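Justification of resources, computational component.

The compute hours requested in this renewal are based largely on the per-chain cost of generating structure records like the one below. Each record pairs the submitted sequence with a full structure-token output. That output is archived, and it is also reused by downstream analysis tasks.
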Amino acid sequence: ALESAIVGHSEDNLREALNSARTVGASNPTLEGLAAERFNDFKQRPQVKKELVAAIEGVNLAVLTKTLVIAEDLGVDQPTVALATARAQTLKQMMDDAEQNLRAAMTTRHTDLLRKALDEAIRLYAADQQLQTSAQERLQHLIKADTAADALIPALSGVNLKDLQLHLQVAIENDVSPVILQKAEDRVAELTQMMAEIGRASCRERV
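The structure output for this chain reads:
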């Protein structure tokens, strides 16, 4: 009975078992030492409960799970343990959702969407280092594309063909949206035609 109480989760049961073992002479120095260590463990219960409550209020599933195991071993009250168990399930779902949202955002061209998804995944510890690196690389790629697009779009309304072509080349190299690239290519064709017509008209005037 004493051996079971030593590995159990109840300080009261351990005290009762130890007293009974001493009464009937079933105790020995080894068991006494183990019981003393276990009593010392139980003294940590208030602190562990405090740490568990803090973990419940946080968003780190790994910390919550680790603290919950210790709390259960030390016999922290059932309502707190139940609350922690429920919170762990909630955090797991939140992490799964955050990871899925991040992976989905990485397939889009929406810089803000990806940035927010990455921030949320990091906040919830939902993305491992490999996924974070991939997402950050994709984000930097989109930022460069946005910068190139921002430079290209104003050139579409101008009449400087050379300037437009230069911006278009940079946009192509930085994987700007195909929709914007198509508009730029159409504008290049339009300006090219305009320049050709101007050239022909100039030749006729000279003749």
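The mean pLDDT is 91. The chain is about 80% helix and 0% strand.
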